[in-house]
Amino acid sequence: MSQRRDSILREMGLAPLWRVRGPADLNEGTGAAELAPPQNAPPAPPAVAPASSALPRPLRSVLPVVASQEPEPMPPARLPATSSGIGELDWDALEARIRGCEACGLCRRRKQAVPGVGDREADWLFVGEGPGAEEDERGEPFVGQAGRLLDNMLASIGLKRGEDVYIGNAVKCRPPHNRTPDTAELAACFPYLQRQIELVRPRLIVALGRPAAQALLNQEIRIGAARGKLFSYGSIPVVVTYHPAYLLRNLPDKAKAWEDLCFARHTMQRLKAEDVTPRST
Prior knowledge:
six-stranded mixed sheet; alpha/beta
C-alpha cells in the first residue's frame, strides 16, 4: 500500500493496519516492521477471529458499495377499496367521503378536495395527476390554464367535457406548490379512483401524465416509452399521454399528444366496432 493511500486512510480515521502483499512480498517474505502500524496510528485492536471474507476488515470497510443494477420496484400504489368500505359507496356517498378524507397529509393544506366531474356513465375516462391552485379553490378538476388546454384536446377528437367524458385525478387534494404526488399519497387516494372507475365503467381510460399512469397501472412508467402502446386496467384499455400542464411548458410535445389522442380515438372506434364493452374491472 502506497504512502499516499496510508495518508488518505488515516485522514478518514482508518489506520492501515494491514498491507496487501505483492509479488515481491511473496518472494522476499514479510518483516515485522512492515506489518506494524505507523507510529502515529492508534493502538491496534485486540486479536479477533479471522473474518470469513478474503479481505481484511479495514480494507473491506472502505470499499465502495456498488448498487444493484436491478431497478428498485415501485411500491404498490393500489389499496383495495373494499378494505375501507369505499367499494360499497354510491356516487353521493363517495364524493362526501372524498371531501372529508384525511387519509394522507395532503388534507392539512387543502381548501377543498376535488372528486371529479362529468358524465357518470361515460365511455371516456380522463385521469390527471392532482388538483392545482384553481381546482383547489373551485373544487373541480382541470379548470385553470391546463383545463382550457384539456378542453381543446377533447374538442380535437370530437369530445366535450361532461358529454360522454368523465374527468378525475389520481389524488383528490392539491399537493403543496403543485408538486408531484408521492407514492404514499397515490396509494392513499387510489381506492377513490378505483371506485370511480367501477361506477363509471368506461370503455377507455386516458392517463394524463406519469403519476396518473403509475397509479392506474401500478408500475414504473416513462411517458416517452409508453406512448403509442395499449395498456390495461383490469379489462379496460388504457392510453398514456402527457399532462396538459406539461404541454404548456413544452409546446413542441403538443404534436405528440395529438398523436396519442388520435391513437385513443382509433382504439375507441375499434372497441365500439367490435362491441367490446368491458364495463367492469
